[in-house]
Amino acid sequence: MDVTPAVTPAATPAPDPKGAPVDLPAPQRLGVLSRLAPEPMKVVLNWGRRYSLWVFNFGLACCAIEFIAASMARHDFIRLGVIPFAPGPRQADLMIVSGTVTDKMAPAVKRLYEQMPEPKYVISFGACSNCGGPYWDSYAVTKGVDQIIPVDVYVPGCPPRPEALLQGILKLQEKIARESLADRYGNSAGRPSVAYLQSDLVSPPPAPAPGVGGQ
């Protein structure tokens, strides 16, 4: 005589006659799913970005002369896949900030950075752009361009030689070659938010009271 207890199948819940919505699993973030892309595809995309950097030169002081020297025939950074003098920020992949960033110029730097399409990169070229340089204690100087926009590579010097800029470009290309856009843009914790980038940098002066200043 078989005494094995019969296995009763799990009861299936009856469908709701009122047509209540069925709970679905939470959707995955795009950044997580993009990691499933074939690795050769990522290599090809990073290779294309690495060797087709259109540069928007934001020259503010003497370091801009060294940038021009790096783009001339002697150093010729075009051989590295860097195309200088993009028509404007909307056609650029890389912004090179060279020179002293003043508080008056900071909103223009920030606005032009916002106009660049993603993915975009920034090289801070020279001591003034890195931290204010010799003018760091001036009331009118921004203590580094990274106070207003994210920076990928810092090139030290006052002013740096053109060879230093070439090394900074190589460092940026190494970073692009091993980066994942899902990690770069899927998690915005390490980069300023859109609301922060679009916020005002300097508060406008208060309006004069009626009757002041000969009114």
Automatic annotation (TrEMBL):
It is found in: Cell membrane. Binds 1 [4Fe-4S] cluster. Residues 1-11 have a biased composition (Low complexity). It is a peripheral membrane protein. [4Fe-4S] cluster binds at residues 62-63, 128, 158. Its EC number is 7.1.1.-. GO terms for biological process: aerobic respiration; electron transport coupled proton transport. Residues 62-172 form the NADH:ubiquinone oxidoreductase-like 20kDa subunit domain. Residues 1-23, 196-215 are annotated as: Disordered. Its main location: membrane. InterPro entries: NADH_UbQ_OxRdtase-like_20kDa, NADH_UQ_OxRdtase_20Kd_su. One of its GO terms (cellular component) is plasma membrane. It catalyses: a quinone + NADH + 5 H(+)(in) = a quinol + NAD(+) + 4 H(+)(out). One of its GO terms (molecular function) is NADH dehydrogenase (ubiquinone) activity. Keywords: 4Fe-4S, Cell membrane, Iron, Iron-sulfur, Membrane, Metal-binding, NAD, Quinone, Translocase, Transmembrane, Transmembrane helix, Transport. NDH-1 shuttles electrons from NADH, via FMN and iron-sulfur (Fe-S) centers, to quinones in the respiratory chain. The immediate electron acceptor for the enzyme in this species is believed to be a menaquinone. Couples the redox reaction to proton translocation (for every two electrons transferred, four hydrogen ions are translocated across the cytoplasmic membrane), and thus conserves the redox energy in a proton gradient. This is NADH-quinone oxidoreductase subunit B. It comes from Streptomyces candidus. The lineage of its organism: Bacteria, Bacillati, Actinomycetota, Actinomycetes, Kitasatosporales. The gene is nuoB.
